[in-house]
Design a protein that fits this description.
Length: 319
């Protein structure tokens, strides 16, 4: 077991971090009979090697930028997304009030967000959430590999700002793309996490449904992260077959074990040169589960794959 600070160095093959459950929610009511949930989605995949920059026009004109609930709901009716999966699960549920407040999506991978674009996104997200407070729970749908001019960890900074600037103390659930770069900032402030399980990605809605179920859970979770020093070629992460498929199968098996709620795998977006870069296993589990041991084992299995396929031609080559 190591301190979260060790995530900053990728000089060992597996680094494991455990985040204990946060203090119980300070609400004096049954969270399943009277609950308010806010939803927001920001999807941008950075490429720190690109000289290109993405600005607000890439969201407003080339992508999606919505701040009104009726417009967001209209969009979710026509586009499969994490947001639509969460809404599908939470809408019309007795005792649950749910409001989608912000969506920003740009085509990617792009370079970095411009400084102004990043701050416009951050200000917009915080303004929309603040305007809808108080709330018991926030579900954030992010990519997890966004970077900007002067900010290497945009997703972590947004999550941190929800705690530090909005002083939100309720439940914070995160859903991510499987190419996310898991950082200390991201995991320190959240209660539970899930991510895509398909490559190419197809399970946007299912991921949103899983995030909504985590939001509805009465359980108190711990998060365990095991990070491996590996950049895995995206051509080698097919969920149907091959090495990554076998690790996905291990993850699904772990979710059948007592106390293990979600096992998410992150073969990180490799076109990044940012701190804490690496591929990750993140387990959302109940406090007394065997999550640390399972995280270590699955990370070891995954890292051991790096030399497999030495004698095969593409795509079975070693990492
Ligand atoms: Zn992806």
């Amino acid at each position: 077991m190591v301190d979260a600070a060790d995530l900053k160095s990728a000089d060992r093959k597996v680094v494991r971090v455990r985040v204990p459950p946060r203090a119980p929610l300070k609400i004096e009511k049954d969270p399943l009979t009277d609950m308010n949930i806010l939803l927001a989605q920001f999807i941008f995949e950075g490429n720190s090697f690109s000289t290109g920059r993405a600005d607000l026009s890439d969201f407003r004109e080339g992508g999606i930028f919505l701040e009104k609930e009726n417009e967001i709901r209209l969009w979710t009716n026509s586009a499969e997304s994490q947001m639509s999966g969460s809404l599908e699960t939470l809408d019309h549920k007795e005792g649950i009030e749910v409001h989608p407040v912000f969506v920003a999506i740009a085509p990617s991978p792009s370079g970095r967000l411009t400084y102004d674009c990043y701050h416009s996104i951050k200000d917009g997200l915080l303004r929309q959430l603040k305007g809808a407070l108080p709330t018991d729970t926030i579900i954030l749908h992010l990519h997890g590999a966004a970077c900007a001019e002067e900010e290497d960890d945009v997703d972590g900074a947004l999550i941190e700002a929800i705690r530090s600037e909005l002083h939100f103390t309720g439940k914070l659930i995160l859903s991510l793309d499987l190419h996310a770069n898991i950082t200390r900032k991201m995991i320190r402030h959240i209660d539970a996490l899930t991510a895509y399980r398909t490559m190419p990605h197809m399970d946007f809605v299912q991921t949103g449904i899983r995030a909504a179920k985590l939001a509805l859970s009465k359980k108190s979770f711990t998060l365990t992260v095991a990070k491996i020093s590996a950049l895995i070629p995206p051509t080698d992460t097919d969920h149907h077959t091959g090495r990554f498929c076998s690790i996905l199968n291990e993850a699904r098996h772990l979710e059948t074990l007592p106390g293990i709620t979600d096992v998410s795998l992150f073969p990180v977006q490799p076109w990044l040169n940012v701190p804490e870069l690496g591929s990750s296993v993140v387990i959302t589990a109940e406090a007394r589960s065997e999550a640390p041991r399972h995280a270590q084992n699955i990370a070891d299995s995954w890292y051991a794959q790096r030399n497999q396929g030495k004698h095969l031609s593409f795509p079975g080559r070693p990492w």
